Structure prediction request, 451 residues.
Amino acid sequence: MEPFRFHLFVCTQQKPEGAPSCAAQGSLALLDDLDRAIEAHGLRGQVQLTTCGCMGLCEEGPVLVVYPEGVWYRRVQAADIPEIAARHLGQGQPVERLIWNDAAAMRALSAGHAEKFRAAAAARDRAGVLPERIEQMIRGYMPSRVILTALELDLFTAVGAGASAEGIAAKIGADSRAAAMLLNALVALGLLAKNNGIYTNTPEPARFFTQDSKDNQRDGLLHTADIWSRWSTLTEAVRRGSAVADRRARPPEWTRNFIAGMNRNAKSRAPLVVKTLGVEGVRRILDLGGGSGAYSIAFAQASPDLRCEILDLPEVTPLTSSYVSRAGVDAQVTVRAGDMLRDELGYGYDLVLLNAICHSFSEQQNRELFRRIRRALAPKGRLAVQDFILNPDKTGPVFAALFSLNMLVGTSGGASYSELEYSAWMKDAGFAEVRRYDLSGPSSLLAGQAA
Ligand SMILES: C[S@@+](CC[C@H](N)C(=O)[O-])C[C@H]1O[C@@H](n2cnc3c(N)ncnc32)[C@H](O)[C@@H]1O
Ligand code: FES
Prediction:
């Protein structure tokens, strides 16, 4: 029995620039349109939408296949989606004008495509060409740098409702020839549109990168721009074994960007952490290195009886206090300036939080910190560590392995660690039971209960 009335496969294959593909012909945007149409026609739960790779019919893309009938649509455009949704998915009547039912031609095209693909791969191999997958990894810095520079220049805000290259260059204080090159690259990346020399933001940059938008994430993303320079020292850091000292003074906005960057992730993770750990029996929380206070704020909002203390470095706590005040939870959340590695932590906490902290410290520092936390906990109190946790041989997940290098270039002894390491440190510090919770996303939670 089919679990769904219809199952739609949309080819979203991307190919090297210049080669025809469904993605290059707009299939990714069709996905959103289809999803909205499914919702609008009340078909959620009846229609399953699945992306798929190349079906060998790339010149005729975007290709969309509907099962159980096995109807193949080709050259589907955004304007066709309402009709496909209403007629085919709503009334079970396929849209004849878009159907491709010349099976022999389809088979021939697909077989020819597979043959061409094999021949091209063999020719590249014979010629000793570097595989495209590796080329792309090597050039990965280019789009990243383009977006970060645009954010540093606050270019998306300057684009506003639409402006010329000269107008934008004047607003951001840039050379107009260079600004035009940057703007054109952003158009090529799909972040801007250009019509008759006028640039406009596409929907996502308009929402996430411009000053008047409530969802503006520019401050937090500027932290990524700040750590760009550290990554440039990776080669030297690998030779030396730890971060290369950055002799330039940090600009005053560095800490603000850093905490805004942390808040970007923490705001979306905090509800998951509260739900996973629960608030039952939790009266006092110590949030070490609480940053923007997002986790304490979420706990406080989940239970009016709960009290949280955030301990963070003196240069951060004024920012922490302003986040806490803005959330309106000053009565439940207090903020203390100090160094968690040296200063007294206090006593009698039911829960101690270490969110995105342990990766900054060496094994020895973490072991000592866990012992001190154990002494600060009430009987049966818990320590919760949230971090990017490596698999046992430390070769993945990819993000955790790359993040380890982020700590190599940024700290003297930090790294990503494995569950085995965290569990051993907790057990050695006197925690009886250590449980792992995989939150959706790149980080996991390990909670140990005081023995
Ligand atoms: C990566 S951020 C994480 C912030 C927050 N826990 C979160 O997940 O959003 C690390 C935080 O730890 C603070 N921190 C680093 N070393 C510290 C120390 N020795 N004592 C207190 N806080 C520290 C930093 O200032 C920063 O706010
Ligand atoms: S890229 Fe979609 S069929 Fe080939």
About this structure: The two ends are 51 Å apart (CA to CA).
